[in-house]
Structures
1.
Amino acid sequence: MRIIERYILRRASTLFLAALVWTLAIVWTTQVLARINLVTDSGQSALAFFEIASLILPSVLPIVMPFAVIIGVAQTLTVMNTDSELAVISAAGGSRWTTIRPVIALALIASIVSFAVDNGVDPYARQRGRELVAQARGDLLSLVIQEGTFRKIDDGLYIQIGERLADGKFRGIFVADSRTEGMDLVYYAKSGAVVERGNQDLLIMEDGEIDRKIANGDISIIRFDSYAFDLSAFAGASGTPKLYPKDQTLSYLFNPDRNDPVYKAKPESFTAELHRRFSEWVYSLVFALIALAVSGDARSHREARIHPIVTALTIALVVRWAGYFIANQVQPRPWLWPLVYGIPAGTAGICIWFIRNNRTMELPVYLADGLLSAARRLGERIARFGGSGRDLTSGGNV
C-alpha cells in the first residue's frame, strides 16, 4: 500500500473509531436503560448490572459499525475534497483506486469483525444474559414480594403483599394481570405462600376471589378456597432459560435440536436467523461503497444542495431500513429470502456503477429541496424563539 493510501486509511480509520465509540455509547446507553428495571426490581448488585450491560455490547456492535464506516469514510473524503487533496491526487496521475483501495480495506476489516462478533461472540453473550435474567427473576420470588408495595413481575403483571408472616406465608395478596389482550384479571386472597412443586414455582392463594373483566365490559367474579398461580415462567430458577434463534450459535442454527420447543413452535425462525447472519455483515462494505459514490470524486461539491455526508447517511438509512424490514418478513414469508441478499447486493451494484462512470450519487432534487426547506424552517423557528427570549429578558430588566 502506497504512502497516500496509508494516509487515507489512517484518516478514515481515526474518524471511523471516533464515530464508532460515540454511536456505540449512545445506542448502548439506551439499551441499558431499557433493562435497568430488571436489576433494580430484583435487588441485584451493581456488579450484576454492569455484567448484564456489558453483555449487550456484542449485539449492538454489528448494528452501529456500518454507520461508523460511512461516517468515517464520507467525512474523510469530503474534507479531502474541500482541501483539494483529491484534486491534487488526480492531477498527479493517481487513479480512483488510490482512494478506493484504503476505503475497501477498512470496510472489509469492519465486515469481518462484524461477522465474527455476530456469530462467534454475540450468541454466547446472549446465552449468558439469559442466565443472568433467569437468576434475577429467580431471586424475584424471595426479594420482590415485599410488604405494602406493588412490584412489577412482567409486562402487565403486578403483585402486592400486605404482610409477610414469620412462617414465610403472606397475608393480603393482590395480583393484577393484564397480559392477555382484551381481558383484565384481578386476584385477591386473604393468605398464601410461594411453594415449589416439581419444576414449578407456585403462588398458592387461599380464601379469595378472581375479578375478570373482558373487552365488552362484562365482569365476572369467581370465589375460591385455594388457587395456584404459576410463577415458574418468571422465576427461571427451576429450569434452564429459554433460548431463541438469536441466542443460538451458528452450528446450532444449521442443525437444531428437533425437540427444542422453540424450534417446534417456529422452525422457520431458525432459517430466517441464518439468512440474517449471512447478510448483515456485508453492510459495512455496502455503506463504504455508498460513501465512495457520494463523496469519492475529485470535483467541487459547492453546487450540491446538501452536504455529502447527509446524502450518504440518508441513503444508508433507507437501505438499512429496507434490509431490516425484509429480514423481519422472511419468517412469515419464507419466499422473500432472496431479497435479504438482494438489497445489499443491489445497492452495492448501483454504487459500483456510479463509481465506474465517475458520477456522483445524489438525492433526488425534490427530496433534497424538501430537506433544505425543512431545515430552513426549523432554523427560522429557532431564531424567532431565541429573539423572543432576548426581547422578554430585556423587557424584564426595564
2.
Amino acid sequence: MPNAAASQPGRAAPLVGVQCCTRPLRGQPTHAVVEKYLRAVREAADAVPVLIPALDDIPPQDLVARLDGLLLPGSRSDIGPELYGGPPLAPERERDPARDGAALPLIRAALAADLPVFAICRGIQEVNVALGGTLHPAVHAVAGRLDHRAEPDLPLDERYGYDAHDVRLAPGGLFATLAGAQTVAVNSLHYQGIDRLAPGLAVEATAPDGQIEAVRAPAANFFIGVQWHPEHRAGDNAFSRALFRAFGEACRKRAARRAGA
C-alpha cells in the first residue's frame, strides 16, 4: 500500500517518469516497463508512475519540466558500446538503441534541472555513460571479479532474493545513513557494470570484488543509482523501503517547489 503518512492532504502525489524499453509484440514495436518498477514507485515511494516512451523526438527539457522524479529501470538489453568507446557486444547480447537515444539525453537534462533520479541496474549504467564514464561489457570476464550474472533457471523469487552478496557502503554516505549500517545484502544480478566512473559521481557502495554497485551525484539534491534490484518486493526489504521512501520524499519536495513556482 502507498505510504499514506508521507502524502500531504490536499496535494496530489508527485509524478515520476519511468523510462520505457522497446520490445517487439506480435511483430510491432512496443514501449514497455516491467510492472514491479511501477509498483515500487506507487507503493514504496508513494508517487504516481507515468511511462516515458523511448522516442527520440521528445525534448528531454519538456519532460523534466513536467515531472517530479525520474526512475530508470533495469532491462535485458545492453547499452551500445559505441556510446562509451567499448568493444563490440557478444552476438547473443540484446540491444535497445531507442532506449539509449531517449535515456541518455534525459539523464543529462534531469541532472541539469536537479530532478530527483533513481537509476536501477541498466539505469546506473546509463547514468555513468551519459555523464562520461565507461562500462565493463562483461563483468564476469574481468580478472578478479565475481560472476554477477543471474541464474535464469531459478524461480523468480530465488533469482531476485536479497542474498547475492553484501555490498560495503561508503562511510558517511547517503546509503550508509539510510541503512544504518556499513554493509547490506543485495540481490545484484547483472552482466555489464561500471568501469571508469563518470565525473561528478561518487561511489556509494562496492561489491566484495571491488565492482561499483551504487553511485550518487553529490551536487544534486537526490540523484542515485544502484546495480541491484530494490524494486523487487520493495516493501519486504527494509533498505529497499528506505531508498524508495527517500526518493519519494525528494519527489514531493520537487512537486512542492513546482507548485510554488
